[in-house]
Amino acid sequence: MRVPSSNKLFKNKPFNGKQRGLALLSVLLTLTLAVLLAAGITQSLQRQTRLTQGLQNREQAWWYQISAEQLVMKVLKQDFKDDKNIIHLDQYWSKKQGNFPLEKGKLDGRIRDLQSCFNLNSLAAAGEEGTGKLQSLQILKALLDNYNIDNHNIADATRDWVYSPTEPAGPGGADDNDYLALPVPYLAGNTLMRDESEWRAVLGVTPQVIHRVMPALCTIPVAELKININTIPENQPELLAAVFLNQISVNQALDILKERPRDGWRSVEEFLAEPLLSNANTTDVSKLLTVNSHYFELDARIQVGATQTHMRSLLVRDKKDQLSVIRRRTGEI
What we know:
The chain is an alpha/beta fold.
């Protein structure tokens, strides 16, 4: 059998230039798809890695926060042991604050005495009838005056927010009908506030009011007002003056706080004997003051790697000087 020569073979099937271009295009397309697929897998793996790392960091931050609570409890219990009947700003709980280094991060912790401020929930009692029930309402109005806010309806509306009946307790107040008439309607709380940030929803409260007054406000889960004169911050004389319904000026209140004993006043009676209070009516005020505290808040900001968390814990002291956490709030508060 005669085998055809190679020349004749190529002559019978000439090479097509278009086919060669198509084959090259197919190879390039396949390579491009492979590169895109590899890039997608790499990006997905990186996202999963970051997500896993973020979850691990968040879990680690949570346990750091729980550890911070235990440390605060230990410090407070030591202060209770050293002086059972007095809480003041020269104790460990007030001085042991700030930044603490952690493995792969840091902790910024602050402890606040929640009886060094005006308890918004005390206004719940101001909706009831009886002598002395309106004291906290009058104090809030005086506090607004000291911050140059002349809208006293804010105080009345705040009382209605924490007062259980759904009708205004008095003129100037606000309740469901007033809030439902707003461009973005909502209902009044008609119960105790869980956090002072709820005050932003009260009718008449503006960002300017928040900026001025909020540092002097707080909430504890009881409808009473007991202010610790030993822990009122020196930069908030407006609150001390308001407690006396402005019978003393803000400047006089500032002088009193500046001259406060380093370890605090030993009793309310000792405080009321201050010369600058000689012309003030202290009969009703004395019932609102104390030198001891039972509510504290830990404000902890944790950073682990690139993850940042924020938690506020409310600690309550019982009659046996034991502390328990009754509320935690996490996130940007």
